[in-house]
């Protein structure tokens, strides 16, 4: 069956999570509205059997929205998601089910199942089987590309997809040996596609200095998405990033490009010609018999022999190739001589370098770019503070085995590009640098000691990018966005 459901919510991540759950678990046809106006427009244009409303909408009171939806579609069931344990309306309106926020995903599934079981199905809904939603998980190459892009954009230490309890694809800076340990942990804790809802656990892997937060989601009933972040990353951020990744993986694949008619390629004459080396010289020695008659003055022949002897057939010309007697001009080079004339010999075993060796994991590094914004808009990073920040950043990088590539201080932001060891999580490194800078500021500048000691000298948001630093325009936009959400922003 395919039941139309309307999800109304201003949080796109939460709406996407509810949508993917309903499509995967119940085969519902889900429409999403971000505002009350969009929801009322959708209710006017199509019929829905169930509406799930997040009571945190910016443009209309919840009681007004419920009343309008009931007037447009009286038979539609209503379910409310609210952070208020007791929902009050000015008018005595009631909904069919209420789910408090934050909620456990199996509770949402259970509430929806109870509501759907009370809906009388139309003949079309009862006769139509639930359709499988197309996704990009079956193609390992496409799934690996999406996982790599998701790990790069989200800063996750690991993005892992498992299928039937085995590793399908993975991406991120985590070493492969640790990836297998995560897969073993999933089996040990019994986390698989049959586990209802999302699962979160804290892990500590052997040989790792940091603890990790593991967040798992089931996708398309067959695949398990697991993301791994350092334990310092807030749980809400991890859940939002996992929801975005799930939405990307569950997108329908693009339609295949039309096949072009195959045309047989006829090799051109130039492709068949073998060019002789420009420095070719025949070897000195006996002349070879040529496959064709030499040009010369015609010789007189007896008339009888001319009539009696049949013409000799010209032998077939051998295929074009580089002459076997070719030698380069001048003295033969040793390398050329060994390649053309000497027999192949086994290469001597490479000598093992002496002294302590570093593993490839220690030699390889990953480059990231960071932008920190001061929380106070009236504070400018100039003068002695700017020079001191550069010096402190270099000391912090050396103490943590980071390699500073570029440090640039703007009046409104600190921008730096560093190279990290491959086994260091980028979010963990960004958090460490920010905390160390705040500590130095609290110890050196008394006027900023209170804000720096409480970790509020910098804004909670920082820009983390993989690779080269962002452009000046991108930094300016990020500062504007961050200052727009800061509680200390100056009045307009």
Brief summary:
Helix content is 35%, strand content 18%.
Provide structural commentary.
This protein has 16 helices and 14 strands. The protein is an alpha/beta fold and 492 residues long. It has 3 domains: 4-127, Response regulator (Rossmann fold), CATH 3.40.50; 140-249, 2-Layer Sandwich (Beta-Lactamase), CATH 3.30.450.30; 364-485, Alpha-Beta Plaits, CATH 3.30.70. The strands form 3 sheets. The chain has a 5-stranded parallel sheet, with helices on both faces. The longest helix has 19 residues, at 426-444. The chain is globular.
**Main β-sheet, in a few words?**
5 strands, parallel
What letter string, H or E per element, gives the SSE order?
Answer: EHEHEHEEHHHEEHEEEHHHHHEHEEHHEH
> Treating each run of at least 4 consecutive H or I residues as one helix, how many helices?
16
Number of strands: 14
| Uncertain stretches | 88-92, 267-272, 285-296, 331-340, 358-362, 486-492
Calculate Rg over CA atoms: 36 Å
CATH architecture of the largest domain: 3-Layer(aba) Sandwich
Spatial strand order of the main sheet: 2-1-3-4-5
Through-space gap between termini: 53 Å
Number of domains: 3
Mean pLDDT: 75
| SSE-based structural type | alpha/beta
What is the CATH class of the largest domain? Alpha Beta
Beta-strand residue fraction: 15-25%
Shape: globular
Oligomer: single chain
CATH topology of the largest domain: Rossmann fold
Q: What helical percentage do the residues reach?
A: 25-40%
Under CATH, the homologous superfamily of the largest domain reads Response regulator
């Amino acid at each position: 069956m395919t039941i139309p459901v309307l999800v109304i919510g201003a949080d796109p991540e939460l709406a996407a999570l509810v949508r993917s759950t309903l499509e995967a678990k119940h085969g519902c046809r889900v429409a999403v509205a971000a505002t009350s106006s969009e929801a009322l427009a959708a209710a006017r244009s199509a019929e829905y059997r169930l509406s799930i409303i997040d009571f945190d909408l910016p443009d209309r009171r919840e009681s007004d929205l419920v009343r309008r939806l009931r007037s447009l579609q009286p038979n539609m069931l209503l379910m409310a998601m609210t952070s208020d344990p007791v929902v009050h309306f000015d008018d005595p309106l009631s909904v069919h089910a209420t789910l408090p926020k934050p909620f456990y995903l199996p509770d949402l599934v259970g509430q929806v199942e109870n509501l759907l079981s009370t809906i009388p199905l139309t003949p079309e809904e009862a006769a139509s089987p639930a359709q499988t939603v197309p996704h990009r998980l079956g193609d390992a190459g496409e799934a690996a590309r999406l996982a790599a892009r998701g790990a790069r954009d989200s800063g996750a230490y690991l993005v892992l997809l498992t299928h039937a309890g085995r590793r399908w694809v993975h991406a991120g800076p985590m070493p492969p040996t640790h990836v297998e340990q995560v897969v073993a942990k999933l089996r040990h804790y019994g986390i698989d596609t049959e586990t209802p809802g999302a699962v979160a656990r804290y892990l500590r892997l052997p040989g790792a200095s940091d603890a990790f937060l593991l967040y798992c989601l089931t996708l398309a009933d067959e695949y398990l998405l697991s993301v791994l972040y350092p334990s310092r990353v807030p749980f809400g951020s991890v859940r939002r990033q996992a929801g975005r990744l799930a939405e990307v993986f569950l997108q329908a694949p693009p339609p295949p490009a039309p096949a072009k008619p195959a045309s047989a390629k006829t090799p051109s004459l130039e492709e068949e010609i073998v060019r002789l080396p420009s420095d070719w010289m025949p070897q000195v020695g006996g002349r070879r018999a040529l496959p064709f008659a030499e040009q010369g003055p015609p010789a007189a022949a007896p008339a009888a022999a001319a009539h009696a002897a049949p013409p000799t057939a010209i032998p077939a010309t051998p295929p074009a190739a580089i002459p076997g007697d070719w030698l380069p001009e001048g003295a033969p080079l040793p390398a050329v001589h060994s390649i053309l004339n000497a027999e192949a010999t086994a290469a001597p075993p490479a000598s093992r370098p002496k002294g302590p060796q570093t593993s490839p994991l220690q030699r390889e590094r990953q480059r990231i770019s960071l932008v920190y914004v001061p929380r106070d808009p009236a504070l400018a990073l100039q003068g002695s503070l700017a020079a001191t920040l550069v010096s402190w950043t270099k000391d912090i990088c050396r103490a943590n085995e980071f390699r500073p590539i570029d440090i640039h201080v703007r009046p409104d932001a600190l921008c730096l590009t560093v190279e990290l060891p491959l086994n260091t999580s980028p979010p963990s490194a960004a958090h460490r640098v920010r905390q160390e800078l705040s500590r130095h500021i609290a110890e050196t500048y008394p006027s900023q000691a209170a804000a720096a000691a409480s970790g509020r000298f910098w804004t909670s948001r920082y820009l983390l990018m993989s690779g080269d630093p962002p452009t000046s325009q991108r930094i300016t936009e990020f500062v504007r966005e961050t200052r727009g959400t800061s509680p200390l922003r100056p009045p307009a």
